[in-house]
Specification:
CATH topology: Aminopeptidase
Largest sheet: 8 strands, mixed
Number of strands: 10
InterPro entries: Peptidase_M14 (IPR000834)
Low-confidence stretches: none
Shape: globular
Distance between the termini: 42 Å
Protein name: Peptidase M14 domain-containing protein
CATH superfamily: Zn peptidases
Radius of gyration: 19 Å
Family: Belongs to the peptidase M14 family.
Mean pLDDT: 97
Number of domains: 1
Number of helices: 8
Order of helices and strands: HHEEEHEHHEHEHEEEEH
Helix content: 25-40%
CATH architecture: 3-Layer(aba) Sandwich
Structural class: alpha/beta
């Protein structure tokens, strides 16, 4: 899907200023409840996990607590596993997949590893089904110290003590039709650039770290997810979102240079999932199941090769 018409906010060729960001924000509306969907689900996990607040966002007088779920039997001598979801609020299966994993499988590695899960990194965007935060910033390009995105800065601070001590980090995402119909056109308009349409990959794929590649780890996750939903084929140029394939269903970025979430911990094994929920070949529940399967496969491989 593509959209070649001019974006309705801003002047082509000119980056947005404060007035354009305000106009964009005025058109963004709440569609769902973080408290009902996420906080209530996390509250129910207190029976078996340590649950705490690692920060809060205050937007327009409304407070959004940022929540983390940890193993209750955390031990310094055990390997650490990190799962993050909802970095982009519109990517629903990442949030619901992280929560379902905790409910159904969160104790499977008890006594063998420490588990840390941040199920919804961007609650304001989750409620509004948006990629950006309130300030029209993409959290997944801003994971660094001193980040201007509050969502990113809070998670960086939470995970800083684990940097270089984390065995596995999996970050759960989606690629949707709205990437081409809304989010990439908005990005081009915000930055004063021309929008160049692309093709949304039809299926699940992974993003490896080009500077710290782990191809066998990526293949293990892809093989497991292929039992749940279909893997994205390459486009006519043999690529996925403009990147050559490392292996079927796997591409790679320099994730740290791009400020992506999967680079925060410096984990030995790291990956970013991408599910395509708009495909006629899958369902919302299959997308959630694909995220859960990816987490379990990533953990199994990492612990088997620790």
């Amino acid at each position: 899907m593509s959209n070649a018409s001019p974006y309705p906010i801003g002047t082509p060729g000119h980056p947005w200023g404060a007035s354009e960001i305000a106009a964009w924000r005025a058109g963004v509306h709440r569609h769902r409840s973080y408290a009902r969907d996420v906080l209530a689900a996390i509250e129910a996990l207190r029976r078996t996990f340590d649950v705490s607040e690692y920060g809060a966002l205050v937007y327009d007088g409304e407070r959004f607590p940022l929540m983390v779920v940890r193993s209750r039997d955390w031990r310094a001598n055990l390997p650490t596993l990190v799962v993050t979801g909802g970095v982009h609020g519109y990517e629903t299966s990442g949030v619901l997949g992280a929560l379902q994993f905790l409910r159904e499988h969160g104790l499977e590695q008890a006594g063998r590893a420490n588990l840390l899960v941040a199920p919804c990194v961007s609650p304001w965007a989750y409620e509004r089904i948006q990629r950006w935060n309130r300030d029209a910033l993409d959290p997944n390009r801003n994971f660094r110290e001193g980040s201007p995105a509050g969502e990113s800065a809070a998670l960086v601070a939470l995970l800083a003590p684990l940097r270089g001590r984390t065995l596995m980090h999996i970050d759960l995402h989606e690629t949707t039709d709205s990437d081409e119909s809304e989010f990439r056109p908005a990005l081009a308009a915000r930055d004063g650039e021309a929008f160049v349409p692309d093709v949304v990959p039809d299926g699940f794929y992974l993003v490896d770290d080009a500077e710290r590649p782990q191809p066998a780890f990526q293949r293990a996750v892809i093989d497991a997810v292929a039992q749940v939903t279909h893997i994205a084929p390459p486009d006519a140029n043999g690529q996925i979102i403009g990147c050559p394939l490392q292996s079927p269903g796997v591409i790679s970025f320099a994730v740290a240079k791009k400020g992506l979430c999967a680079a925060i911990t410096g984990a030995r094994f790291s990956t970013t999932t991408e599910v395509y929920p708009d495909s006629p070949r899958t369902t919302p529940q299959q997308c959630i199941a694909a995220q859960v399967t990816a987490v379990r496969a990533a953990i199994a491989y990492a612990l088997g090769h620790a």
